[in-house]
Amino acid sequence: MALPRWFPLARNEARILLTSKGPWALAALLVLWAYRPSYIAWDGLGPDMTVGFVQTTATIVLPLGTLLLSYRSIVGERRSGSLKFVLGLPLTRTDVLVGKVLGRSVGIAVPVTVSASVLGLIGLVRFGLFSPLRFLAVLLATHLYVLVLVSVATAVSAVTTSTVRATGVVFGVFFLLLTVFWKLIASRVYTTVSGRAANPYDAPADGLLFALLRVSPDRSYRVLTNWILGVGNSGAGYDAVITKLQTPTSINVFAVEAAFESAPVPVYLHELTGFVVLVVWLVVPLGVARYFFERGDLV
Fold it and tell me: Domain range for residue 45?
C-alpha cells in the first residue's frame, strides 16, 4: 500500500520538532504547571484527580507553546525562500498543508504524551490507581486540541506573507481573545444582545449564554474533558467545577447544572458539542486556508 504523498513532509516536520529543544522544554513545563493536587479535587474525583492534571496541561501553557511552535510553519519558509523548494516537490498545496499540520501535531503530541505519562506515574504513586480509560480519553481529547491549535496556526501561516501579521492574528486574536479573555467577551456579548446580566455567580438559564461561552476551542476542550471526568457541564477547569457544583462555596464559574436547576437543558448544550466545536475549529480554518493557498500566489 503506497504511502500518502504528504507523508514524507509530515515525517520531516515531526522529526524537526522532536529533535529540537522547544517541545521537550514545553513537556517539562507542562508537568510543573499541571501538577496541582487539592483537597477539593480529591473529594470530587479521588484517585482520578490525576486525570484532571492532564486537563490542566491544556490551560494557557499548552496552547501558547503549541502556537509558538506552529505559527511560522509556512510563512517562515515563505520568507526564507525554502517554500519554493517544497512546492517544487510532487506535492499539491493541499498536501503541504496536511503534511505541515499532521507532522507538527505529532511533533508536539509526543512530548505532551510524555508529560501526561509523568503526571500519571506521579499520581499513581501518590494517590493510587486511577481510571486508565478516563486517562486515555482525556489524553486523546488533549491531542485533538493540539491538532486544532496547529491547524489554526498553520492556516494563518499559509494565507499571509508577513510574520508580523501572522503573530498578530495567532496571538493577538486567537490566543488572547478566544482563549484568555473569551469568558469575559462572551459574557459582554450576551449582555449586549439579551439585555440581561451574565452573572457567573447566578447565571441565567439561557442557552445563548452557554453556547457563546463554548465557541472558544479552549472552553470546548474543557467541556468535553469535564464530561469525561464526570464533574459537570462547564468550560471551567475541573477543580473549579467541583467547587461550584459540589460545595457551598460561591465561585465565579458558569455551569449548566447550576443555571438550569429547574429548567430543561437545551440539547445543543450537551457536552458532546464540545467535541463538535473542536472539529469545526479543526476543519474550517484549514478549509479557508486551502482555498486561498491553492488559488493565491503566496510564495
Answer: 7-295
Q: Is residue 201 part of a domain?
A: yes
Q: What is the pLDDT of residues 246-287, one digit of tens each?
A: 999 999 999 999 999 988 999 999 999 999 999 999 999 999
**Assigned domain for 118 exists:** yes
User: What does pTM read for this prediction?
Assistant: 0.95
Examine residue 102 and state whether it is found in any structural domain, yes or no.
Answer: yes
In a domain, 2, yes or no: no
Structure confidence by residue, pLDDT tens digits, 61-109: 999 999 999 998 888 877 777 777 777 777 788 888 999 999 999 999 9
Give the number of domains in the chain: 1
**CA distances in angstroms from 290 to 6, 84, 150, 286, listed in the order given:** 15, 17, 15, 6
Kindly state the cell numbers that stand for 157: 501561516
DSSP 248-262: S---S--BHHHHTTT
Looking at residue 115, its amino acid is: S
In the block, residue with C-alpha cell 450576551:
190
Question: How many whole angstroms separate alpha carbon 97 and alpha carbon 188?
Answer: 36
Q: 115-122: which pairs have CB atoms within 8 A and are 24 or more residues apart?
A: 115/27, 115/28, 115/30, 115/31, 115/34, 115/57, 116/54, 116/57, 116/142, 118/31, 119/31, 119/34, 119/35, 119/50, 119/53, 119/54, 119/57, 120/50, 120/54, 122/35, 122/50
Closest CA to 112 of 61, 152, 47, 174: 61
Distance CA 222, CA 55 (A): 7
Backbone torsions φ then ψ of 255, nearest 5 degrees: -135, 130
